[in-house]
Amino acid sequence: MRAVIYCRVSTDKSEQETSLARQREELERLAAESGFEVVKVIAEQASGYEADRDGVLELLELCEEGLVDVLLVQDETRLGRGHARMALLHCLKKRGVKLYSASHRGEMPLSEADEMVLSIIAIVEEYQRKLHNAKIKRGMQRAIARGYRPERNLRRQGENAGRDRIELPIEEIVRLRARGFTFADIAATLRSFGYEASKATVHRRYQEYMDERQAEQSSGYELGTERDQEYTDERQGRRAAKR
């Protein structure tokens, strides 16, 4: 299993540097005993009450990309404290990442209180997701009532023109992107409505749309410039005729 070692101290005092080294040594030994492959060692000096630590953000990126199976920490306080700790436990559990600690010499058990809080968080998150999707669905239904066609898409382009093109609602992609959605979020939203949408496909369609819009705007500018020149030439011709 692929493991990430996470070490943390709260201050930048010299003795804390020794603590970081000791944490790493203990966790590397635990990884070897457990047969884990250490793919990353993250060490940082930061408060455990902060959830947006640089090391934690790096850890979550690795988890999001599916590159981590287990996280190794010295003890549960190294992961975080207070709400930050619960938020990180939730993120790890949601992504199926196991938590091992040197203090337990194996997988770290959660208390009944922790399990209850995590269950509540999961329920609230699922409700928010359904509510969000319902809002998007109502928005699409209103758009269809105003004449929007979900099957509309861009023309086939490039060397993939011979393959069956996946139909996606480009207007909805553009609208969600304008609201700050990532391409992964947009793809997940479209899949919930039955579209076969991957992050790469959504990104490609969005880029094609933006390129086409830019080309249309450039063409309009050139056409306007040509008309202005024709009008200028015509006026100059009239003046010459009067003379």
Automatic annotation (TrEMBL):
Signal peptide (from-to): none
Any GO MF annotation of the entry: DNA binding
Domain Resolvase/invertase-type recombinase catalytic span(s) in chain numbering: 2-147
Region named Disordered: 210-243
Positions of transmembrane segments: none
InterPro entries: Resolv_N, Resolvase-like_N_sf, SSR_resolvase
UniProt feature, compositional bias: Basic and acidic residues: 224-237
Domain of life: Bacteria
Listed Pfam families: Resolvase
Protein family (similarity comment): Belongs to the site-specific recombinase resolvase family.
Family annotation (PANTHER family): DNA-INVERTASE FROM LAMBDOID PROPHAGE, RESOLVASE HOMOLOG YNEB
Protein name: Resolvase homolog YneB
Protein species of origin: Geobacillus subterraneus
Gene: yneB
